[in-house]
Design goal:
Structural class: alpha+beta
CATH superfamily of one domain: DD-peptidase/beta-lactamase superfamily
Largest sheet: 8 strands, antiparallel
CATH topology of one domain: Beta-lactamase
Strand content: 15-25%
CATH class of one domain: Alpha Beta
Number of helices: 12
Order of helices and strands: EEEEHHHHHHEEEHHHHEEEHHEE
Number of strands: 12
CATH architecture of one domain: 3-Layer(aba) Sandwich
Length: 325
Amino acid sequence: MPAQLSAPPVLAEVVRSGFVESRHRGSVAALGGDGSLALSVGEVAEPMFPRSAVKPVQAVAMLRAGLQLDGELLALAAASHSGEPFHLDGVRRLLAGAGLEESSLRTPPDWPLDDEARLSAIRTGGEPTPAQMNCSGKHAAMLATCVAAGWPTDDYRAVEHPLQQRIRATLEELAGERVAATGVDGCGAPLFAISLTGLARAFSTLVSSAPGTPERRVADAVRAHPAWASGSTRDETALMRGVPGLLAKAGAEAVYALALDDGRAIALKLEDGSQRARPAVVVAALRRLGVDAPVLDELATMPVLGGGRPVGEIRAALPSGVTPP
């Protein structure tokens, strides 16, 4: 009979009227500046799909393959953007720079993530489009990379395409481990499974690499233009603006990766994939590494409403964790 895996520890609680009504379990890996495992909570060595948290690593692979980008458009290449007007303009600029049209995108049609941008599109008679999908910046950059490298663009999402093989190799190099499984992301691009420790290691490498390298160029672009890599009202943007030198990228299914400018890094995942508790757990993990900034107080809890007013909160319940010898 196969051994039963123990459930991951509780990382967050939902409290309503003083009563804990829900709990979110998950895992957290944190590295010290020297690369050692400083905090291990839950299953940090088991493979998981990093989802969009891995986009900065994908952007590194694109630069290595010949993509010529910096600044806000490089941040957009690593983005899960909110579909605000400046994001859509940037996607069109990326495509135009490669001599391509929006019809080249293979992202599924979608509405903007940003509430105001979505309502504006609906009010003006718009409809879901590939450019509005949050991964379109990455896909536009993938297409531009194919043009720069002389690779075909029609099948750029195929796992056997040279671009996707470069992305896989770059991820394995920066994570320091082999890909454990291959899947398909929500945008249709290949998805490669690694561990939380490997994801944290990759982010540490991004911020610790020498200036001018592809790794550091991506980290610097995202940190300098956080709203281009996420959105004007997103928690990643607030964190990067509020914690100097922080690199942060979230992904679907409650994955989050962060790195401080001294090389300390965090990767986490909530087991149920719920996004609502993610900011509180991120704040608790950063505080566990000794980070202190006013923005952490702002994101540490989220209100639970009853009758339109706060009656509780979503709060972190991060256990002490252990560090293997």
